[in-house]
Amino acid sequence: MELMGYRSRILQETIEEAIGKGKSIVLLGPRQTGKTTLLSQIAVDFSISLLIPGLRQKYERDPDSLVREIQALHSKKKNPLVFIDEIQKVPSLLDPIQYFLDQKVARFLLSGSSARKIKRTSNINLLPGRLINLRLDPFMLSEIENVSLESILSFGTLPGIVLEETTESKERILVSYVESYLEEEIRSEALVRNLPAFGKFLELAAAESGRICNFRNISREIGVSHSTIADYYQILEDTLIVERIEPYTKSNVRKKLTKSPKFLFFDLGVARIASREAWPPSRDRLGQIFENFIGTELIRTIRNRIPRAKLSFWRDPDGPEVDFLLEIGKSLIPIEVKYTDKPSTKDTVHLQTFLKEHPQSKQGFLICNVQRPEKLSHQIMAMPYQEFFLSQLF
Question: Residue 125 and residue 131: Cα distance in Å, rounded?
């Protein structure tokens, strides 16, 4: 039975199929992306929410109490299904969970909003075939209806935001999100020693979302070492706030291709509030935000539909650049993003350069706001952003 206001997620079928095959699942995702709501759709034999202080303290004091509870459950039902919400709150539970997985005593649904403690306190990810790692993000385009592009670029697609009716409420939720991230994820977990510096870094990282990352420039702005900036970005990755995109550096023609990564914030609304950016933005800035939106949508589409694919970008500091490269098998597909409803061949100059220098690439795309696909050259197609993600590429 679905919860009131619940919207079906693409991952639901994947999770149900895996559970039906006797697998266990770790579902990671940023805060408030709907992990608990999604997993609550699955019938389980035992459920624990580590967000409840009393339960969290109980298992912190005595992790072996989970062992006794599951052994009692196993005596009544073979291979029971156990749901533990926000597992990173008590990482010491991962050891008994691993034991039960090894012994095939129980199956688990685990959710978490940070990969940091899970990665550093357990080898649980080293159980191929029995534990499936999944990621839940804010809503994808295919999961929402009747939401304007303006709303997406302004407020993002966190479920609580999409389902909220008023602009004022959306804004309050986003402000609270950024504040609670700093307090509950960073301060309470003691992830950094200098919280004011990290707060300033978060503001700059949000403003730089989607741009080529320069650790040294940011370090000079904040007054910490560039290695500290690298550590800060790792914290954002581990807490699932940013996505890293590496550059494509293979070339028989160019010797100075960019080797620094891009980082995309997971949600446009959160990025706007974290950056303290004035709204509405300039036309150029709106184009950058639109590019960030398309980048995160590409990442999520790959993650859910073609995990064998890879996303990168291509840039010569002294010349052309292509916003995204989609690598699927031996195919290399260059993608430019323009916030325009009137694309022209002038918008395809860098795509044409890339296609000329990489003959293995047969087709390029310009993702924009056109109503219908337009052929700009024999190799380049302008695509409406909505239609592109429904194309045969995926």
Answer: 7
Report pLDDT digits (tens) over 282-338: 888 899 999 999 999 999 999 998 888 999 999 999 889 999 999 998 889 999 999
Token duo for residue 212: 């080529």
The conformation of residue 209, written as its DSSP 8-state character, comes to: T
In the structure encoding, which two tokens stand for residue 158, read together? 């966190």
Q: What is the pLDDT of residues 205-246, one digit of tens each?
A: 999 999 988 888 999 999 999 999 999 999 999 999 999 999
Q: Cα–Cα distance between 372 and 123 in angstroms, integer?
A: 49
Does the pTM surpass 0.85? The reply is yes
CA 238 to CA 119: how far, in whole Å?
9
Nearest-angstrom CA–CA distance, 107 and 105: 7
The answer to whether 269 and 170 are in contact (CB under 8 A) is yes
Token code pair at residue 386: 């909505």
SS3 content of the chain, % helix, strand, coil (to 5): 45, 15, 35
At residue 124, the 3 state secondary structure works out as helix
The single-letter code of the amino acid at 50 is: L
Q: Which residue in this structure is represented by tokens 């950056």?
A: 275
